[in-house]
Amino acid sequence: MIEKYLKNLEYDKIIKFIADYCDSEPGKEDALKIRPLYDIDKIEDELNKIQEAVSYISSYGTISFLFKNLDDIIKKAEIGFLLNTKQLLKVAGFLALISKVKAYLKNIKDEGNYPILSCFNEKLMVMKELWEKINSVIISEEEIADDASPLLRNLRKQKVKTNEKIKNTLNSIITSSSKELQEPIITVRQGRYVVPVKQEYKGSFKGLIHDQSSSGATLFIEPMQVVELNNNLKQLELLEQQEIERILSELSHLVSENADAIKENAIIMKELDLVFAKAKYSIEINASKPQFNEKGYLNFKNARHPLIEPEKVVPINIYLGDKFDTLVITGPNTGGKTVTLKTVGLLTLMALSGLNIPADEGSEVALFNDVFVDIGDEQSIEQSLSTFSAHMINIVQILNKVSSKSLVLLDELGAGTDPTEGAALAMSILDYLHNIGARTIATTHYSELKQYALKMVGIENASVEFDVNTLKPTYRLTIGIPGKSNAFEISMRLGLPQEIIENAKSYITEDVLKFEDLLKDLEEKRNEAEKTRLEVETLEREIQQIKREYEMKNSKIQEEREKILEKAKIKAKKLLDTAKATSEEIIKKLREADKCDNKNKIIEEARLKLKNNINELEDVLTKTKKSTYHNVPKDITPGQSLYIVPLDQNGTALSKPDRDGNVEMQAGILKIKVNITNLRLINEGVMKDEAEKGFTRFLNEKTSNISTSIDVRGKNLDEAIMEVDKYIDDAYLAGLKQITIIHGKGTGILRSGISQLLNRNKHVKSHRLGVYGEGGDGVTIVEIEGK
Predict the structure, then answer these.
(1) What is the CATH class of 3-127+258-284?
(2) Under CATH, to which class is 629-682 assigned?
(3) Which CATH superfamily is domain 291-504 in?
(4) Residue 112 annotated in ligand binding
(5) Is 333 annotated as a binding residue?
(6) pLDDT tens across 287-334, in order?
């Protein structure tokens, strides 16, 4: 790929954006080297990496891959150089980053979803021992830890002691020789402790002169009393430096031993940084993965130029290489022709480089070998070339290298010379490219090329739209219709006198005028068709919305119906279970309490009585609607209660029947329309009497037979809670003030669960554990609210 073509399409700016998203120096360096690939497997591999990274960022956020280039440091360590603290800290920082990235990539729970990232993660080697060793020794770029070695710690302790001795000695000298000193201070000269002595006491103050002031009035003398101490200090500092160098040498050797692993990690980290940078850029421009083919077919859906601001860019749909391989785009200046060319070229280069493209999913790109470009003003003042000549030189170079697997983008083909000759030359160039089989997109102003594209097989017209009312381009691209020049319309809108426009038309041949009129008619019809299409799409969306709302309402109705039926079943079963439990309780009590001779007779009478009671209750609960819901109503008034057959539920009429017999009904939270044939009158008096009689009989039986205690020992928590909850309701209906729940001690699960139930039951006034004589912690005593 020739670099100037990449530059013409602003490919370098895309690469710069990706480099800016990289955190590491090596990542940025590799990003700037990104170029189109010509191997479909390599391209797909790069795209798959980006897809995984985009998905991973969306699920787990991102991480910084910031690290410096370590190549020079590693090379120095390998050849035996002594690494300094700054270099070793860079190595340690990189090793720490590896651990962070490994921890970040641990979020990969299913390797099937992230096979590439999983592979990266497996290759990364955590070098904890080397990292901890460097960190334990080096505190900062200027400081080695005291505990780096026992010898270093001992030397530094000796230094501290020697320093203290020197300072104590000098302080004593300052105190005793104050008149001889210029100032009572201790300072350092040439790395040795000295005091400032007046010039006149030079002979009497014993010591070594190391410096003097600029005026000569002050001498900086090292007193003889501290010379030996200073010598000792210097010796300790020398030994300390030697030990530090030994420690650094040891660390440098460790780095050298692990050089291969560090370099391998650096390569992986660099690749990860670049992959995630590409993914971040893809997310930024809302890009998608392109599909590739080797048939020379190109189809961009809602393609957007990535360098135009998102709120300003107008998406285009453009295809090439199927029914036609040459596209001629016409339209006025600033209408978007050049932007279209650049969008196609730049997105093709991005796709060939293994990058996602700012277009809808399903967009296709051919595996081109070359992308040739002639865009912009190539005029060269140095070579004294005209615009036309410069373009021709570029086109000649293109024609010498073009093949059937090339994409050729030509802007204003044939411009800059005599229109007739320019148009003829442009058509001849397009013929040549078409015969070779190259995929070509060319922009032009020449009307001859519009007619040429209409006549030639495999060559198609396209146009960019221009609004003559606002005198602004819309940047919309239409394939299949050539564009109008709109020169007369634009001139008239700008105020050019009508007589001049009419006179100008007289200079144009009748065929050209007819052709322009035909284009105008086609454009009007296309606009009408587009308007109709948009209306149809709007209606389709409305229909789909109505369908979704209907399905949603129908679903809600079914759900509500199921809930009502389920609730009724549960209520019926609860009543029956309660009645049966009550009968068993009565029988049990009779057997225990009755000691007379005819106890069996009494028991049988009680059983028969309860059985009759249960049968009556079952009759009430299971009685079909036919006994309480009668004829179809002949007339309905708003507010009337009616039985809704499809819902098996009573509802309230909200309206009179319409002409189709539909009535708006309120059934619980639902408002629905029901045909009058699906409604039944309710015999409310009969139903109310039957319900009240049945309930009264049930309540009387319940009051006379309910026990003051319930035993749930041996049951699981769910069973126990259901039975206790039902029992509390029965106790409340029976008017009991206090009940006992026997749950046993055990593990405490039943006691705890029942306590939570009692806390939220509205019929419970208070509850407590039993005391001695009541059952202790094995029972709970409950006070019931009065009715």
Answers:
(1) mainly alpha
(2) mainly beta
(3) P-loop containing nucleotide triphosphate hydrolases (3.40.50.300)
(4) no
(5) yes
(6) 999 999 988 999 999 999 999 888 888 899 999 998 899 999 987 766
